[in-house]
Each structure stands twice: as C-alpha cells, then as structure tokens.
Design goal:
By secondary structure, the chain is mainly α. The protein has 4 helices and no strands. The longest helix is centred in the middle third of the chain and has 21 residues.
Length: 98
C-alpha cells in the first residue's frame, strides 16, 4: 500500500479541478480553522481518504463460519480441476519452488 509522501518531498505532479464558489469557500474556511492553506487541507483530506479506501479494499473480512471453511480448505485442498490444470500448464504460469 502506498503511504503518504513526506511533506517536504519534491512535488512534480500537478492536479487541477473545478468546483463551485460555495464549496471553495467552505474548504477555505475549514483549512483556515486548521491553520492550513487550501491546497494542504485538500491534499491532507484526500490522502487520508485514499489510504482508507485502499486499506478497506486490501483486507478480506470473513465471518467466524467463513474463516473455519477457509481454513479447512487450506488444510485439505480439493484436487485441481481440469480447468485449473490447463491454466497451470500455461508457459507464463508462475511456479513456486518447494
């Protein structure tokens, strides 16, 4: 997962977007209340949300019952199907050495 860059890193990419005057004023007021300029406020909020979304999509959450079934399959996997065997014969299929 990508972590936010340090605040003093070189910033070589640019982002621009349009918004309403009302939203810009709202964000500017919130930024000022936090002692930040508008760019820093928006980037901090966007970065926090991006990290949160990526984390949410990176974690598999299972119920206790599903965890048990998953563990049982890991402990005693079913034999490979013909389709899986065909995929495993593909030249670019990664083979893990034991």
């Amino acid at each position: 997962m990508m972590t936010p860059a340090p605040l003093r890193s070189v910033k070589d990419a640019r982002m621009e977007f349009k918004t309403t005057e009302e939203l810009k004023n709202l964000l500017t007021q919130a930024a000022a209340l936090n002692g930040l300029d508008l760019t820093a406020f928006v980037m901090n909020a966007a970065t926090e949300r991006a990290v949160s979304v990526i984390k949410e999509h990176s974690v598999l959450k299972l119920s206790a019952e599903a965890q048990g079934k998953f563990q049982a399959l890991l402990d005693n996997p079913p034999p490979p199907t013909e389709s899986l065997k065909a995929i495993m014969r593909l030249p670019d299929f990664p083979v893990l050495e034991k």
